[in-house]
Specification:
alpha+beta; about 200 residues; GNPNAT1-like; 7 helices; EC 2.3.1.4; about 20% strand; Aminopeptidase
Length: about 200
């Protein structure tokens, strides 16, 4: 009984947020991004690098610490992480994609694709790019470009009619090199923030 429980826990920890097979099918020639040397989700450029969906075990691989380089995550417990992972997986529409350095078993890059189901455009899907971050010690290796192009092509593969993002002014040129465009008369980001419910 103890061995079966241990095997089930190991399998649970390696559980992907979404089916990883879809990443192998992405056609990087569809992206206007230029990679020198050429890399892709299937071949990220180094044997020690893997592009894959988020796993439960990434709690122990520095995923939250990586997100802290982007913004505050708070003090998330293992239980909270597992509950949110389960909620995201069960509801569908969440494609958190990571880059792992397998030498250190650390998550070094991440981006989130959320897919909204719409009534407009013939009941289509719209993708949103969120939470893009690369570990500061790994920058300059095309990883930001790699993770953004991966989730953008993933949105296309899933049938999204468009992909949107919000970014700081200093990042506009970067995203333009990846195919994103400011739409005249429609390039405003507005937010309404609420007090912390706790």
């Amino acid at each position: 009984m103890g061995m079966q429980t241990h095997i089930a826990q190991d399998r649970n920890m390696s559980e992907y947020l979404y089916n990883s097979d879809i990443l192998q099918k992405l056609d990087f020639s569809k992206s206007p991004a230029v990679f020198k040397p050429k890399i892709s989700a299937a071949n990220p450029g180094a044997e020690w690098m893997v592009v894959r969906p988020l796993q439960r075990a990434d709690f122990d691989k520095g995923f939250l610490q990586l997100l802290n380089q982007l913004t505050s995550t708070g003090n998330i417990t293992r239980k909270q992480f597992d509950e949110r992972f389960t909620q995201m997986k069960m509801s569908g529409g969440y494609y958190v994609t990571v880059i792992e350095d397998t030498r250190s078993s650390k998550i070094i890059g991440a981006a989130t694709l959320t897919v909204e189901q719409k009534f407009i455009h013939n009941c289509s899907l719209r993708g949103r790019l969120e939470d893009v971050v690369v570990n500061d010690t790994y920058r300059g290796q095309q990883l930001g470009k790699l993770i953004v192009v991966t989730v953008s092509l993933l949105a296309q593969e899933l049938g999204c009619y468009k992909m949107s993002l919000d970014c700081k002014d200093k990042l506009i040129k970067f995203y333009e090199t990846l195919g994103y465009k400011l739409e005249p008369g429609n390039s405003n980001a507005m937010n309404m923030r609420f007090d912390d419910p706790s």
